[in-house]
Write a structure and sequence with these properties.
This protein has helices spanning 49-61, 127-135, and strands at 2-12, 19-27, 36-37, 39-42, 71-79, 88-95, 108-114, 140-146, 153-160, 164-167. The chain has 168 residues and is mainly β. The relative contact order is 0.21.
Length: 168
């Protein structure tokens, strides 16, 4: 199982305190090509998840984030029984603080989106189940098992830490 990270830079509505915009990206190469995804990637040997998310954010879109500004929000397991090489354990983080000039790279085309306009139909099938919870700042653990088409979900198991869980 691959261990990876995701970073979601966000903008917050100062009046309501809710997340108003999120930085996502169109994946241009590699795993997930053509899908809308979060910024991130694999954890290299000797790296922590926090070190990896800082490095991946810089490499993928030229934004710099600091470990102290990253809010751990989710631990996600993605199980592809018909394509085990795709299995992932992903740690996802939010951040409201970054520096640098957002840049398209060979791997991704970054896109700022209003939360109400997130194109879930262009994302992996699991995103519609867990990303809204994360954007509500609920910490979660979740696992998703994909069907033989590697596109639709066979099962969903989400636990909102300290609150509730559900299975489908």
């Amino acid at each position: 199982m691959r261990h990876a990270t995701l970073c979601f830079p966000i903008r917050v509505n100062t009046a309501s305190g809710t997340v108003s915009e999120i930085l996502l990206a169109e994946k241009k190469s590699g795993f997930g090509k053509g899908k809308i995804v979060g910024i991130g990637g694999g954890i290299e040997s000797g790296e922590t998840a926090l070190q990896a998310v800082v490095r991946e954010t810089r490499e993928e879109c030229h934004l710099s984030v600091c470990v102290v500004d990253l809010q751990p929000m989710a631990k996600l397991i993605f199980d592809f029984p018909y394509r085990p090489g795709w299995n992932h354990l992903v740690e996802a983080f939010l951040t409201e603080v970054w520096t640098g000039n957002l840049t398209e790279t060979a791997e991704v085309k970054p896109i700022w989106l209003a939360v109400s306009k997130i194109p879930y139909h262009k994302m992996w099938a699991d995103a519609r189940h867990w990303l809204p919870l994360v954007l509500e700042r609920q910490q979660i653990t979740a696992s998703f098992t994909y069907n033989s088409d590697n596109q639709t979900l066979a099962s969903i198991d989400i636990e909102v830490l300290g609150l509730r869980s559900y299975r489908i």
